[in-house]
Amino acid sequence: MEFWVNQTFNGISYAALLFLLGGGLTLIFGVMKIVNIAHGSFYLVGGYLGVALFAATGNFYLALVGSALAVAAGGVVLERVFLRAVEGDDLRQMLLTMGIALFVQDACLLVWGGDPFSLRGPAYFAQSVKLGGFTFPILRLFMIAAAGVLFVVLWWFEEKTRAGAMVRAAIDNAEMTEALGINVPILKMAVFGLGAFLAGVAGVVGSAFMGIYPGLDFEILPYAFVVVIVGGMGSLSGAFVAALVLGLLDNFGKALFPEISYFTLFAPMAIVLAFRPTGLFGRA
Amino acid sequence: MKKLLVLALVALFATAVLAPAAPAADKPPIKIGFIAPKTGNFAQFGIDMLDGFKLYLTEIDYMIAGRKVELIEEDEGATPANAVTKARKLIQHDKVNLMAGLVMAAAAYAVAPVAQEAEVPLVISVAASDDLTQRKASKYLARVSLTGGEHGHVAGDYAYRKLGWRKVSVIAFDYGWGHEVAGGFQRVFEELGGQVIQKIWAPVNTADFGPYVASLKPEADGVLDVVTGAASIRLIGELRKAGVLDKKKVLAAGTATDETLLTALGDSALGVLGFLSWSQVLDTPENKRFVQRIKQMTKKDYVGFSAAINYGAAMWIAEAIRQVGGDVENKDKFFQTLRATEIKSSPRGPIKIDKYGHIVQNIYIRRVDKVGNLYQNTVIDTYPSVGQFWKYNPEEYLKQPIYSRDNPPCKYC
Known about the structure:
By secondary structure, chain A is mainly α.
């Protein structure tokens, strides 16, 4: 019993991290139709800024919001200055994000050096809640809460607000949306910023959970891609469901059959791709 | 006549004094090529290595046996092919007298034959893979870092005899270092009568150790942790949060609690035991002096293991050059002398080289403590002069296959 409760809880909290990683990427892909290789860099910068802001202010939530906003601002600038310049050319846009990623990697090494950091966070992050004989680390509870809240807010935004309707329209048919008098370039910039914001949040939460160090940007990228591909590119609900399924599969796979650790995350992706090439919630 | 005699005497005296130095001063500088990562994920490692190596050269003013030393730095990069290209460049273009450095085992295996072919001594100062100085030992290679196997042997002995462990869970990275430390540990531990009851091989890109930690067998007396780098922060953090560290001891392979990780590990690592051939707080005059000097240079509170062992590597190379009177052009004599050179007082203690080219050194048992505001690896026990073959006969040892995922097999899992 203890095993199943612990592992399920672990799996859900890992799923929360996966959702934070993949959510922003799927948003950006949906509207802009580009694979943002620099997503990991947003994560990395978010994490480092989070560590620096936490060290300066001692307030984790301030560090979280401040860092995510800074990354979002950076994302908006990148979109406006660089990506806009090669608008309409998917391949060049993707290569551009690759270049940005390499640049950011070395810039971070220059600024923060190569020793790993860990974001300590408030003291209770190191503690656990004991409930009916089970132990739940608070940091993992926080990850679940953060991912849950962000999902609900984003879902509400996309489904229930006028701006969200515009985003959905742009995902389905950008040209038609523009013909209706909606400013799609501004929309794209905003969505790119939002995606970067989510990556920044993931970076701060992630550096409390996994630490932050050079190379992590490209290390987390496959995880973000798995979530996006399984969930269906551009679908927020898809990313949420995919993160949950993958988190649990990965966790139980590793706990029950440690010798197949390498496949627990990527085998489901291959299976989904074989039977539903557009992902669980994707549209062709 | 008398004047002439005095003049002749003075001249004779002068030549007698100046003679040994004169030819050396005319010789071109001794060139040392240093290959270490300067970009990518291991960049900090490379920076630390060079800091240590250069600190010693600075102390001796880049002069050995009357000859100037020229250090040529090359970036190891992320692939063995790149390291080979850099080694060829150092040999053919720069005509170096010796190469040092190398972090990745794969790069070391790839560069060794290149050095052998050119008959240029190669001093490996980090890469730890056992076979570099065992089944694949090569004539022109010497290693002054460590091996996984030798560290595992010590840990197995310590766990059984001093910690009184009888049943152990092992959680190790699924690559050479993990296999070799865990394999060495298991061999010694089980020969003494202990049992390894669980072996978990975690992929090197493991993001969440939660599932592994939750499945550690409760009946084990302790946990052997062979996870390195930033992942160590995750594993030890998880062991702490899941309450494992409150119930049992964790014995971590050296670099898992490297000084450069201590800040990030924080309180979660307090009490974690480890084993490594150095500690920043090792209480010897040489080490204290070294730590003080390198802190002045780097302006950091913590000094990495790779800086310390590379300082030692530079000391050892310089001593060998001194013993051949700076005549590094006589390759055979230089290399024989390199292998025969002993340093009595390097920062990590006395060092010498065995006949397979690997270092013989002390291995220290350490415990993570907090003293004032700083964390440290307190030395609580010492295994003096440990070689790569432990107490086994080298010839017989080498007949066995290298430690791997399934060797030794897990009989009690």
